[in-house]
Design goal:
The complex is a heterodimer of chains A (113) and B (115). By secondary structure, chain A is an all-beta fold. In chain A, 0% of the residues lie in helices and 56% in strands. Chain A is built from no helices and 11 strands. The radius of gyration of chain A is 13 Å and the shape is globular. Chain B is 0% helix and 48% strand. The radius of gyration of chain B is 13 Å and the shape is globular. The chains are: A mainly beta (113), B mainly beta (115). At the A-B interface, β4 and β5 of A face β5 and β10 of B.
Chain lengths: 113, 115
């Protein structure tokens, strides 16, 4: 049973345009959400996070939106750059202290120059 | 600050052999995690340590996998005997304080291939 779902395995976007990566979750106990970026042969790198008390968090070109009623979050990258081409993982964690991160399967983003 | 260090980067063994991976977390990070990432999947937690104690090993196949963090710093993960389905990337991560919203920082992983 996949608790964190990234339904788009891949996404192609033109350089300079907006990239929108989506993530859905099923566990209503999740209250902290993260996005990680992964280049080939490297480990995942933390990108941005959001707590369930917020509906938006912004860091430079990256913005994460959280819709708790829909159990949906999205990562917006504006403007997209070729260096953003990577696999993006959505992850979530429960609210009872030291609970493990649950990851989605990832979305491969290709930004075309 | 130096990141999470893992070795080796790659390992190829035959099924039924044993293998060990090593991880050195970011200095000062009390919490250490081992993940298994199978091709096309997201990382899956195998075991979590807080200092030298195990916090969660519910998804560790204990009949063949073992892990230790004896001095509360670096850690080893062992597989014995290996099966074909153990082919994956094994990622180590660390965090400062898992009880607050601190992100986990990952190493580059060990890619294990079982022949």
């Amino acid at each position: 049973d996949q608790q964190v779902k990234q339904n788009s395995p891949s996404l192609s976007v033109q350089e300079g345009r907006i990239s929108i990566l989506n993530c859905d979750y099923t566990n209503s106990m999740f209250d902290y959400f993260l996005w990680y970026k992964k280049y080939p042969a490297e480990g995942p790198t933390f990108l941005i996070s959001i707590s369930s008390i917020k509906d938006k968090n912004e860091d430079g070109r990256f913005t994460v939106f959280l819709n708790k009623s829909a159990k949906h979050l999205s990562l917006h990258i504006v403007p997209s750059q070729p260096g953003d081409s990577a696999v993006y993982f959505c992850a979530a964690r429960g609210n009872s202290g030291n609970t493990p991160l649950v990851f989605g399967k990832g979305t491969r983003l290709s930004v075309i120059a | 600050e130096a990141g999470v260090a893992q070795s080796p980067r790659y390992k190829i063994i035959e099924k039924r052999q044993s293998v060990a991976f090593w991880c050195n977390p970011i200095s000062g990070h009390a919490t250490l995690y081992w993940y298994q990432q199978i091709l096309g999947q997201g990382p899956k937690l195998l075991i979590q340590f807080q200092n030298n104690g195990v916090v969660d090993d519910s998804q560790l196949p204990k009949d063949r996998f073992s892990a230790e963090r004896l001095k509360g710093v670096d850690s080893t993960l062992k597989i014995q005997p290996a099966k074909l389905e153990d082919s994956a990337v094994y990622l180590c991560a660390s965090s400062l304080n898992p009880y607050s919203n601190q992100p986990q920082h990952f190493g580059d992983g060990t890619r294990l291939s079982i022949l």
